[in-house]
């Protein structure tokens, strides 16, 4: 019952978003505005405040960042090479889908619901910095296949690089690190304002994820989506868990990171695939497939980790 009480509220709000979209209450354009609000305003405010009010030695979590970053890069390359028989436009999409976690839109709500604000503080900086690693890795994975289609091998690479340098989630985390490192308390008015805005990030993110679900996009991608579900929700978090355990990491520092890793494929992977010449239909199918499978897989991971 404890695990269900953690997982069900999160996915019920996702279901609410799906119902609002299907019922016509929330349009596609409206959901786009909602997603941008979370991505550019609410989530950066949440990450900034969480990092700023958490002691630097706790918020940085170097082992979590090192393990997840290493697993992400190595597994992304392996999956890319293993997908050599796929069409060039699909190869990078599959690799990105197998490792890019929906940390902000699903990971942080799950962590918060499971272990509270303290756990969010432990992973806030890691989430922001992992966005940089995901983007740095995704640019070559999505652009290199174009070499075989007669296009420039790094078509769109500058746009990807720009996204890395100006990513609001990374900038929010880095700003929070700077405040924490300086040992300066946030002014009360600013602290309260960031807290109010940041608290909207989690429910709005879940509604946005639900509203974006279109089951028709999954229909023609079931075989590939099934393989990516196993990789993203099973193999990827398992490797992160093994790496952290080998290094002796325990408690919330391990549980929160593994739960973040066990989230479905990030929604932003669709945007990057579309803008860099990847198969956007496949990207959408992988997001939907892993999101639907995340309900039972999250329950399993919480049971394994022990709440």
Note down, in words, how this protein is organized.
79% of the residues lie in helices and 0% in strands. With 307 residues, the protein is an all-alpha fold. The chain has helices at 2-22, 28-53, 56-59, 62-82, 88-99, 103-115, 117-143, 157-165, 168-182, 188-212, 222-246, 252-261, 268-275, 280-305. The chain is built from 14 helices and no strands. Helix 6 runs antiparallel to helix 7. The radius of gyration is 18 Å and the shape is globular. The chain has one domain (2-302): Na+/H+ antiporter like fold.
Helix-strand blueprint:
Layout: H1 2-22, H2 28-53, H3 56-59, H4 62-82, H5 88-99, H6 103-115, H7 117-143, H8 157-165, H9 168-182, H10 188-212, H11 222-246, H12 252-261, H13 268-275, H14 280-305
Helix pairs in contact: 1-6, 1-10, 1-14, 2-7, 2-9, 2-10, 4-5, 4-7, 4-11, 5-7, 5-11, 5-14, 6-7, 6-10, 6-12, 7-8, 7-9, 7-12, 11-12, 11-14, 13-14
At CATH level 3, the topology is Na+/H+ antiporter like fold
Q: Over all CA atoms, what is the radius of gyration? A: 18 Å
Largest sheet: none
Distance between the termini: 11 Å
**CATH class descriptor name:** Mainly Alpha
Percent helix, as a range, is over 70%
Please provide the count of β strands: 0
